[in-house]
Amino acid sequence: MERVTFITTETGDDLMLCFAVQHPDDPAEIESLILTRTPETEFIFEEEERGVKVSFEREEDEDQCDTLQKFDYEKSAGVVRIKTNFVEYELDVRKVDPDELKDMCKILKKMNFDQKFQMSGV
């Protein structure tokens, strides 16, 4: 399980949710796990190319387009599970500020305006 120190969100033309994940070998080093969606321009893509794009600095492969399939937030345990086309992440969000977790839920609802991915606990 990856430990998250904080979460940032952005709304505008792009909807962005960024998890600051501690590096397992050096807790002082942070790597970003980013979920991004651009609803205003994604109409130009084929249906299967639309949705929330997921990238993680540690595993970045520019040739591979990874799309969010499922997002589960287990609030009581402080755990987020993210499933993409290729990878699954389990995040410990117990140390994250409650307001940041509320913002996470708000932006996920905006990102899932067309029910493109499964979502629970949000």
Description:
This protein is mostly beta strands and 122 residues long. The protein has one domain (2-120). Helices cover 11% and strands 41% of the residues. It has one helix at residues 98-111; strands at 2-10, 15-22, 30-37, 53-56, 68-74, 79-84, 88-92, 118-120. Strands 4-3-2-1-7-6-5-8 form an 8-stranded mixed beta sheet. Strand 6 and strand 7 (88-92) form a beta hairpin. The radius of gyration is 14 Å and the shape is globular. The two termini are 20 Å apart. The mean pLDDT is 89.
Shape: globular
Strand order of the largest sheet: 4-3-2-1-7-6-5-8
Rg calc: 14 Å
Structural class: mainly beta
Largest sheet: 8 strands, mixed
Mean pLDDT: 89
What assembly state would you assign to the polypeptide chains in this entry? single chain
Task: Give me some keywords for this one.
122 residues
Short account of what is shown:
11% of the residues lie in helices and 41% in strands. By secondary structure, it is mainly beta.
Topology:
Layout (H helix, E strand, L loop, with lengths): L1 E9 L4 E8 L7 E8 L15 E4 L11 E7 L4 E6 L3 E5 L5 H14 L6 E3 L2
Parallel strand pairs: 1-7, 5-8
Antiparallel strand pairs: 1-2, 2-3, 3-4, 5-6, 6-7
